[in-house]
Design goal:
The chain has 126 residues and is an alpha+beta fold. It has one domain: Aspartate Aminotransferase, domain 1 (Alpha-Beta Complex). Helix content is 37%, strand content 24%. The chain contains four helices and six strands; from the N terminus they run H-H-E-E-E-E-H-E-E-H. A six-stranded antiparallel beta sheet has the order 1-2-3-4-6-5, covered by helices on one side. Helix 2 (18-34) packs parallel to helix 4 (101-118). The protein starts with 8 loop residues before the first helix and ends in an 8-residue tail after the last helix.
Amino acid sequence: MKATTPKNIDEYIAAFPPEVQESLQKMRAIVREVAPEAEEALKYRMPTFVLQENLVHFAAFDKHIGFYPTPSAMEAFRTDLKNYTHAKGSVQFPLNRPLPFALVKSMVQFRVKEVREKRPKQRQKR
């Protein structure tokens, strides 16, 4: 990545080689499709999508793309993630293998549902 700090996700993505940019743009497109109302931001120097709270983050590294969908999503998809290096709240998708975009989409859908369920339920007030 370039030495300058990017000001937005476009600048962040532009700092990587074309094949990595393509994967990052696809990740971004998936989040936008699933959560069109989510706001884009850079947090922790990573592309971040915010929907009331941090929805997901992702970031490119030399040999992988890190995806940070929160510990709850990691737990919910632990079986699907067993073949990837992962931690409590993150997973590494190696750049030398096809990225599991369908899995990313499912995880983002999980997070959107989780966040929306946290909203105060107005109709339950009596």
